[in-house]
Amino acid sequence: MPRQPQEINVHVGGGTFTHVDGNVFDRPTIFLGSGIQALNQVISHGAMHDSAERDPPPRCHPGTREKATTDIIRWIEEPIPSSSVLWVNGREGVGKSALMQLIAERGGIYFGGCFFFRRGVPGCNQKESLFSTLAYQLAMNIPGMLEHVEGVMSKDFSLPKKAADIQLQRLIVEPIRLLPLLPNRRIIIIDGLDECEGHESQRDILSLVSRVSSDLSVPIRFIIASRPEHQIYSMFNEEPLFSTTRHLVLDEEYDSDFDIQCYLQDKFGEIHTRNRDIMRQVRHPWPSACDLSILVFRASGQFIYASTVIKFVGSVGGLLSPQEKLNIILNPGPMQASAFSELDRLYTQILSAYGGSEVLVQFLGILLALEALRLSRNPICDIDVPGNLQVIADIAGLEEDKACLAVRALQSVAKIHIEPVYDNLDDMQTSGMFGYRVELSHRSFHDFLRDEARSGPYFINPKLFIGRIFCRIFEIATVSIERFKR
C-alpha cells in the first residue's frame, strides 16, 4: 500500500529584506510527496544556517560589521545586478562565517538557501551533498518550486547520489526554469568553501557556480565566502568568474579595529558583572585603555583572536581570577599555550594542509629574520628586502617552485603582494614569472611561530636564521670580490 504524503508546515515566501530582522514567511499547510521526503532524508541538515547542529552559530557582535553588512545588502537588493557572484574573502578568523550567518538570517524574500562548509564534519565537508541541500531549501523558499522538485525526485530517488553537475542541473536549474518570472533573484550563500574537502572539489564547485551564474534564465545569484587560498583565488581571477564577480575583502576594505574594541569592551564588561564578588579590588575601567589597545593591536583584525581571549578570561573553573587570566594573555609565558589552544589548532591546520613542514619553516624563518632586521633598523634592510620572494628563496636555499608553493600555503595567514618582474606585459606573459612580496598578516601568528610550546614542528627562532642571512651575505660578498680581482 503506498505511503501517504506527510503534512507539515514549511516556509514558502513573504517578508521584506530591508525592514525585517530574520526571515519572515507565510506558513500555509502543504503536502510533501515521497520525492521531497526522500530528498529530506539525504541532505546535510547540519550545513544550514538554522541547524540544531550549529546552534549556537557564529554571530556578529551587535554594532559590529555594520559597513560590510550594508554593502552586502545593497549588492543583494540591486534592481539591475552588476554582478552575479559576490566573493567575500578574508584571512582566517576575520568573521566571515558570522557575517554570512547574519545575511542568511536577514535574507527575507531574497534568501534561497545556504550551505556552511565545516572542515572534518561529516556531511558538511564534501561537495557531494551541496546542491541537493540547496535544492531542498530553494523548494521550500520559492513559491511553486516545490512541486517541480517533487516531480523530478519522484521519478528518480537516486538523484542526490549522482554527480554534482547532474544534481545542479536536475534539482535546481531545470525546476527553477519552469517557474514564472520571479520578482527578485534568489541568493544562495556558500560559506567556508576552503573547508570543503579537496582542492579539486573546491574548483569544481566554482566551475558549476560560474556556469549557473552566467545563465540569465536562472534567477540565482551566489555569495561565496572563503579564505583567499590559491586554488580559490586563481579561479576568481580567471574567466569566466573574473567578469561576473565582485570581490569584497574583509580585512582590507574594512577597518576591524573599532569593531574588535567594541566587542572586547562589551564582553569584558559582562565578565566583570558576572564576577563582582572576586573583582571588587579591580580598578575601573577594566581592562585599562592601555591593555585594551594591546589586545586590539595583537588581534590584527582577527575576531577569532578576540573571541579566544574572551573565552579564556571568562571561563569558569580553576583558581585563577579573570584578571590573572588576562595577565597570562598580556604577558608571554608557558601558560599562553592553554589560553590560545583554539587559535593554535587553526594555525597548525593551515600549515599542515600543504605538507612539507621543513620548507615552510625555512621560508618563514628567513621571512621573520628579515623582518626583525628591518625593525632593528639594520642597514642590510634599508632597501625593500623584507618579504621579497627571490631574496627569501635564495637565502633559504629553496628552488623557485618550492618557494612559490610556500607562498600558496601561506595565503590564509599572509598578504601576498604580486609585482611584475618585467617592464612590459608581453615579456611577463611569455615567461609566466611574477615577483612576490610576502607580509604576515596577524600579530598572533608571529607569536605562535615563536613559541615552541604552541607551534611544535613549526617553531622558529629568528636569531638562528639571522645568522644564515649574514652567512649568505658573506658568500655573496666573497664571490663579488673574487670577480673584481679577475
Automatic annotation (TrEMBL):
Pfam families: NPHP3_N. Keywords: Repeat. Residues 72-227 form the Nephrocystin 3-like N-terminal domain. PANTHER family: AMELOGENIN (PTHR10039), FUNGAL STAND N-TERMINAL GOODBYE DOMAIN-CONTAINING PROTEIN-RELATED (PTHR10039:SF17). This is Nephrocystin 3-like N-terminal domain-containing protein. It comes from Hebeloma cylindrosporum. The lineage of its organism: Eukaryota, Fungi, Dikarya, Basidiomycota, Agaricomycotina.
